[in-house]
Design brief:
heterodimer, A: alpha/beta, Four Helix Bundle (Hemerythrin (Met), subunit A), Rossmann fold, 2 domains, eight-stranded mixed β-sheet, 12 helices, 49% helix, 13% strand, elongated, B: alpha/beta, 434 Repressor (Amino-terminal Domain), 52% helix
Chain lengths: 308, 500
């Protein structure tokens, strides 16, 4: 399935609901305040958050208030508004060849999809002809190391690991040494899931970063927050806290193949301008796709017929 | 940090508190704020609307009791409506069936099904003395079955062995067979994460449900879920008639939104909360406590329970006796510090304390975090045994030595000593009052950050500036042994029956 197809299917639920709402609220020909209020609610229900929603509605109001509009036109305007917010932050992750190895640190809360995303990134870069090493620094969750090892087998890249319960920072460091010795292009470090409210776990993450920095090769070159597409406003707190522990290069938003909406991305863009590197749209190793602002905006508001 | 619902509502009600009478306009002002706060807390919009209607009906035109302020009245109405909507509490698992009673765990990817399956197995086995068997039907995620096997081994329960090329349906059949042969009381079927729009996987879970006839189908959902909570809960409920909800990551800083939404749209009770990464971090649900948290009244019950579980009862009794005699020394102080750390440090504890939402920032600004306790610990550890027993020995040169030994400054040592003295004083008072002196208790738990809180970077915060009111900061926090009089009589871990 194409990216659009998947995203379309993925955002389908949201899109259809938003579409339904948009279609159902636009009964009157002229765009009045009541309709705007209903549209406001519809956007909030797609997790866009208050700020971004207010901005989009204001924008719509200034352009079309008291004029005759079709639901189609409203969708176009909203999609463009969303795309405008997202355009500057749709920045793919390009490993810088000047750094060898280019070190990528995967961080996030529990269950957001870090390990799966690490595997998908490994696949992406291996197929581009780069040599990738992965380090299993999630020493906490049962079988997390095994999970990454299986991704290693699938993608044909080496996995550095220790014993369960071992020191995560030590594994990260060993991974870095190994990647340097083997002259690998890229090192992906998978870390344990941690809730941002748990300060001691965030401190542990900061320690992993510091240990990597000590090697003096500029690592980590990219710290990626893996964000569950179904998460609501808590994503804002996640971005803040993780960015404090290890300055983030951007986000990868996962599980957009579901009824997930990912509308929170708009709220995050509005508030932080945090880049979105890619989106996860499925469970297989090819299911990591670049993030396209306009397509995302269109899918979100249900302009699916324009997406082919 | 994300402004929590508690803080939001706190500021709304602060404004209400100043007024004389509860007018319709007051109610509407408050409710507008409540609406925004609920949206920001990820409560789904349709749920908010229904909630608002209920609250408004009750609030407008209701008599304001003489003894309460209008603000308190609204808080009570909002609180009651929340409790109503979130409850009931402590709904036990329904295991009344010919064994094995089958529990089917379902949910989205990454919601925490496998971890929760392990926790549930552990709880049923170790606390309720059931023979439990676990089976993983997750053939999608790499190493998912290994993960469940490890968790099963840790919990000391049986796990259905993995076989290559099994389909989930085949594993389910094999698991039921195995559970019957072993006459297990309970069989927990952990399934692969699935999105509700994946028709093939939804059909598969329906087939499994049909085949296994589970007595419980538990939807495992992330407490941080956004507006999607409604979609997911509705879709699972329509497909396979779930019987309950387990909310995971309830120990994070997102509060209540998803719980309220899912409870409302499915009509199914929330049976458990996942509250940590360890395998014993599974709690029964209390609507009162959840609503209290949402409204910023703090989870006092949770705090007491946590204290009871963490602090060894005997240790607490021993300490209480020493306190009563005024024998509280630095070693006791150290013990209390360590217990405090064990209870989850500041992060874990603060969320449980009443009215702490707003204070959290002040505390952060004052530089009080977990490293603060580490420094305090270091200072005490740099004292010799004699000094720990007789604090009066600490003259200037000893204090200098201790500061150097612990990598702190003499001022830091002075502050610690002052704090110790304040605390010892309070302990004595508490001891004399038999632990029932309301004034002493109030000074430990009541009040807010009285003085201005602030410490230069790198400097050890002066806790006395926070005002004695902050629970135990001025001299009480580590004093949980004393702060909770009669801890020995509190329910012990593993025997947690709540009275209410």
């Amino acid at each position: 399935m194409s990216f659009f197809g998947r995203l379309k299917a993925g955002l389908g639920k949201t899109a259809s609901r938003l579409t339904e709402t948009i279609t159902s609220v636009v009964k009157k020909k002229k765009l009045d305040q009541e309709t705007l209020d209903d549209l406001f609610d519809a956007l909030v229900m797609a997790d866009l958050g208050m700020e971004a929603t207010e901005k989009l509605i204001k924008d719509l109001k200034s352009k079309r208030f008291d004029t005759e509009v079709s639901s189609e036109e409203i969708r176009e305007t909203l999609a463009e508004g969303v795309a405008e917010i997202l355009e500057p932050i749709a920045i793919p992750l390009q490993p810088d060849a000047a750094h060898r190895p280019f070190v990528v640190l995967m961080v996030g809360v529990n269950g957001s999809g870090k390990t799966t995303t690490a595997g998908k990134l490994a696949e992406l870069w291996q197929t581009e002809g780069k040599t990738v090493i992965m380090a299993a620094a999630d020493t906490f969750r049962a079988a997390a190391i095994d999970q990454l090892k299986i991704w290693g087998e699938r993608t044909g890249c080496e996995v550095i690991h220790g014993e369960p319960g071992g020191d995560a920072a030590a594994i990260a460091y060993q991974g870095l040494e190994k990647a340097i010795n083997q002259n690998a292009d890229i090192l992906i470090i998978d870390t344990a899931g941690r809730l941002q409210a748990r300060q001691e776990l965030m401190d542990e993450l900061a320690k992993i970063r510091r240990v990597l920095e000590k090697k003096g090769v500029g690592a980590p070159h990219a710290s990626i927050l893996v964000l569950d597409g179904t998460v609501g406003q808590n994503a804002i707190s996640q971005v803040k806290a993780f960015n404090e522990a290890t300055p983030l290069s951007g986000l990868i938003v996962t599980k957009l193949d579901g009824s997930a909406r990912g509308g929170i991305v708009v709220a995050l863009a509005e508030q932080f301008g945090m880049p979105v590197h890619a989106v996860g749209v499925g469970e297989t190793k090819e299911d990591l796709k670049p993030f396209e602002a306009l397509d995302f905006g269109k899918a979100l508001v249900g302009l699916t017929e324009h997406i082919q | 940090m994300f402004e929590s619902l508690s803080e939001k509502l706190g500021s709304v009600f602060d404004r209400l508190r100043g007024r004389g009478a509860l007018s319709e306009a007051d109610v509407d002002t408050a409710l507008r704020e409540v609406r925004v706060a609920l949206i920001e807390a990820d409560v789904a919009l349709p749920v908010i609307k229904s909630f608002m209607t209920t609250v408004r009906e009750k609030a407008v035109g209701s008599d304001v009791l003489k003894s309460v302020t209008p603000g308190q009245m609204v808080i009570k109405i909002v609180n009651d409506a929340l409790v109503d909507m979130l409850g009931p509490d402590d709904v036990p698992l329904n295991l009344n069936t010919a064994p094995p009673a089958i529990i089917l765990m379902v949910g989205l990817q990454g919601s925490g099904k496998t971890t929760t399956s392990g926790k549930l197995a552990r709880q049923l086995h170790q606390k309720e003395k059931k023979s439990v068997m676990l089976a993983s039907l997750d053939v999608s995620r790499p190493a998912a079955r290994q993960q469940l096997r490890l968790l099963g081994e840790q919990a000391g329960v049986g796990v259905v062995p993995e076989q290559d090329n099994d389909t989930p349906v085949m594993i389910a059949k094999r698991a039921i067979e195995a559970a019957r042969l072993k006459s297990s009381d309970v069989l927990i079927l952990d399934t692969a994460g699935r999105t509700t729009i994946d028709t093939a996987l939804m059909a598969e879970v329906k087939e499994i449900a049909k085949l296994a006839k589970p007595v419980e189908i538990l939807l495992v959902a992330d407490a941080m879920t956004g507006q999607d909570a409604v979609t997911t809960a509705t879709a699972f409920n329509e497909a396979i008639d779930i019987t309950g909800i387990i909310l995971t990551r309830a120990d994070g800083d997102s509060r209540g939104g998803a719980a309220l939404s899912m409870r409302h749209v499915t009509g199914c009770p929330i049976k458990y909360l996942g509250v940590g990464e360890k395998q014993d971090a599974l709690e029964t649900f209390s609507a009162e406590r959840m609503a209290g948290r949402i409204l910023g009244m703090g989870d006092v019950v949770g705090l007491v329970e946590k204290a009871a579980e963490t602090i060894e009862a005997e240790e607490a009794e021993r300490m209480a006796k020493r306190m009563a005699k005024g024998q509280f020394d630095m070693t006791d102080f150290l013990t209390q510090l360590r217990q405090l750390k064990k209870m989850g440090g500041m992060g874990g504890l603060l969320g449980l304390l009443p009215g702490i939402g707003k204070m959290q920032k002040a505390i952060k600004a004052a530089g009080i975090d977990d490293s603060f306790f580490n420094r305090q610990e270091a200072i005490i550890l740099s004292m010799n045994k004699k000094e720990r027993r007789q604090v009066a020995l600490l003259n200037a040169s000893r204090r200098r030595r201790i500061a150097e030994g612990s990598g702190t400054s003499v001022q830091d040592v002075n502050k610690l000593v002052k704090q110790y003295q304040d605390m010892a004083k309070m302990m004595k008072r508490l001891g004399k009052a038999g632990g029932n002196d309301p004034a002493a208790l109030a000074s430990m738990f009541g009040g807010g950050p009285g003085g201005e809180a602030g410490a230069a970077p790198g400097e050890m915060p002066d806790l006395s500036k926070l005002g004695g009111g902050f629970p135990g900061m001025g001299g009480g926090l580590p004093g949980l042994g004393g702060g909770f009089p009669g801890l020995g009589s509190l329910p012990r871990p593993g025997n947690k029956k709540k009275k209410r």
